[in-house]
Structures are given as structure tokens and as C-alpha cells.
Design brief:
The chain is of the alpha+beta class and 110 residues long. The protein has one domain: Orthogonal Bundle (Arc Repressor Mutant, subunit A). A 3-stranded antiparallel beta sheet has the order 1-3-2.
């Protein structure tokens, strides 16, 4: 792979990881993986204020992680790719294993 292309791929990778770097955005992605929602639905389900949800949706849209469809005056948000949830689940599995190893170390020294 040429250097310019490699840099662009790494930049895109970092942007996607940045989109996942906030607990609220992760919760939004998991919620949208269940079904499409509008901002009001997300606010009620996640018990968070509308401006906060809207800011996070903007970040997720800019990174191509969610899509938005206008239906009259309402915008419906969808998960752009189910593999995002698979990636999050893989990260959680790795995190579980890391925490289990740390717990074993703590147990060994006590």
C-alpha cells in the first residue's frame, strides 16, 4: 500500500475510533441496533437531554456510523452498519478477558 493511502486509511480508522470514544455514543449505537429511532425516542430511552443526543448524533453521522432519513418533520436515525455492533461486542469480550486477568493477579497477591 502506498504511504498516502496508508495515511488516509489510518486517519479514517482514527476517526471511527474517535466516534466510539464516548459512552453516550456507544449507547446510541446499541439502541439504534435494536430499531430506528428519532431524537425524541432516543432522549426518552436514554434519559438524556435533546441537545446532548443531537450533538452525539452529529458526530456519529459525520463519521458515517449512523444515517438519517427525513420523514416529514421527523428525522429517523439508523445504524449504518451492523458490523459496528459486532466490533463493539468484540471489544467488550477483550475487555472482559483483560479484567478477568487483572482480577486473577489481584487474587494472587492477596
Amino acid at each position: 500500500m502506498n504511504k498516502t493511502l496508508e495515511l488516509e486509511v489510518n486517519q479514517l480508522h482514527a476517526e471511527i475510533c474517535g466516534g466510539l470514544a464516548d459512552p453516550t455514543r456507544i449507547m446510541i449505537l446499541y439502541t439504534l441496533s435494536q430499531s430506528s429511532r428519532n431524537v425524541t425516542d432516543l432522549c426518552h430511552e436514554l434519559t438524556m437531554p435533546q441537545p446532548l443526543i443531537s450533538r452525539h448524533l452529529k458526530v456519529l453521522r459525520e463519521r458515517g456510523m449512523v444515517t438519517a432519513e427525513r420523514h416529514g418533520t421527523v428525522i429517523i436515525y439508523n445504524l449504518a452498519d451492523r458490523r459496528l455492533i459486532q466490533a463493539l461486542d468484540l471489544l467488550r469480550a477483550a475487555m472482559h478477558d483483560m479484567l478477568a486477568k487483572r482480577a486473577e493477579l489481584v487474587e494472587a497477591i492477596t
